[in-house]
Amino acid sequence: MRISKTQLALTTGLVVVLTAGVLLAFRMNGPTARTTVTAYFANSNGLFVGDDVLILGVPVGKVSKIEPQPERAKVTFWVDTQYKVPQRSPPRSSHRSW
Question: GO cellular component terms (predicted)?
Fold first, then answer.
């Protein structure tokens, strides 16, 4: 059985389009580079694992762990590496109640 030039061109085009689609989907939904940060809070009431981490109201990461300690709470979270968090920036926890 012979493959015509039209069939070959269509097959090649389909493979190229599918490959580009898979690469684009991976880039959009694939793993992102993250920076893990640990902060200590005197009060972690209302803060939950999975909550968004915000910089100027923009979600840039998520809370990954909260560990209660005798005098404070140790909160571990990650931030996408495209956002820079100054080493000495004071952590704040603000919760909105609707």
Answer: extracellular region
